[in-house]
Amino acid sequence: MDYPRNWHELLAWFPDEAACLRYLERLRWGAGFSCRFCGTIGARWWRMGDGLRRCAVCRAETSVTAGTIFAGTRLPLVTWFAAVWYVVNQKQGVSALGLQRVLGIGSYQTAWAWLHKLRRAMVRPDRGLLAGVVEVDETIIGGVRAGWRGRGHPEKALVAIAVEQRDRGLGRVRMQRIANASKETLTDFVLDHLEPGAEVHTDGWAGYVDLAGRGYQHRPRSQRANPDEQLLPRVHRAISNLKSWLRGTHRGVSSSHLQVYLDEYVFRFNRRGTPMAAFQTLLGLGTQHEPTTYHQILARPERTG
Predict the structure, then answer these.
(1) Which residues contact 271 (CB under 8 A, 6 or more apart)?
(2) Residue 158 within any structural domain of the chain
(3) pTM confidence score
(4) Is 208 a member of any domain?
(5) Is the dihedral of CA 98, 103, 107, 111 positive or negative?
(6) Would residue 81 count as lying in a domain?
(7) Pick from 219, 160, 220, 221: which is nearest to 188 by CA?
(8) Which domain holds residue 143?
(9) Residue 189: which CATH number?
């Protein structure tokens, strides 16, 4: 087991910066050093006196945190590791105020930025596609406001959700904010998240009509034709749980940052049985994502499918 199982083990494993750096090196370069400048995979290297590695191919020097979410941090890695541990072990998620209080971080702004950096690292670049029997649907995220009806409110967002069937329960999930429920948009969502040949269960919305022609076993269901049957029970359960989580832990979120909260929910849900292992996973993913500043997070436009 290559991750601490409790808070006491966390403190024992990572008492200082050197221990944190060694752990990140194993996560980032355990399969061989990869130079971020010349792109050589498995390159020979020399360790420099200041802790940097020098590539034998291009002679460039780099650190294990360079080009990662930890780059340029002013707070010690020990605090980052504690933050990751706290985040993944809180079943219902963490607020910026809660993280600030628990770790004694100086400002709310820093805690908020850290959480957003971690959320952006919760998507594995090479994650696998959903397979087998998968339910797909859309939902609107955003509360009812006086004077607004339908989907037109600027704080409302349309989200596509896919859920694998695992026996009678839920397998892996995928969630993505989408611009609309058109045929093109929904087809792209399925292509991006489901393996060809998957059995796709949807409602009777015409936006899914192209799936059979794209190599999927499409099984559209109509509530009108099946009035006594609960259609798409797994995806509807996932939608209900997502909305409860957003309202409870985060008291709602801005539509401009919704996607990273969806990414966090997916990360947590898909690792709900192994929260301790998620500590190692998130640190490893953090070394695969480029750094972002507070101002970049504020300015980054929302991704929509």
Answers:
(1) 88, 277, 278, 281
(2) yes
(3) 0.88
(4) yes
(5) negative
(6) no
(7) 160
(8) 133-256
(9) 3.30.420.10
Domain annotation covers residue 123: no
Kindly list the strands in the beta sheet with 217-220, ordered across the sheet, starting from the edge strand earlier in the chain. Answer: 169-178, 157-166, 133-141, 199-202, 217-220
Please identify which residue in the block is written with the tokens 């995979």: 41
Residue-level pLDDT, tens digit, the chain, 305 residues: 588 989 999 999 999 999 999 999 999 999 899 999 998 998 899 999 778 999 999 999 999 999 999 998 889 999 999 999 999 998 888 999 999 999 999 899 999 999 999 999 999 988 999 999 999 999 999 754 434 344 444 568 999 999 999 988 999 999 999 999 999 999 999 999 999 999 999 999 999 999 999 999 999 987 676 666 678 999 999 999 999 998 877 666 777 889 999 999 999 999 988 877 899 999 999 999 988 887 888 876 555 55
Q: How many domains does the chain have?
A: 1
How many residues are there in the chain?
305
Rounded to the nearest angstrom, the gap between the alpha carbon of residue 212 and the centroid of all alpha carbons in its chain is 29
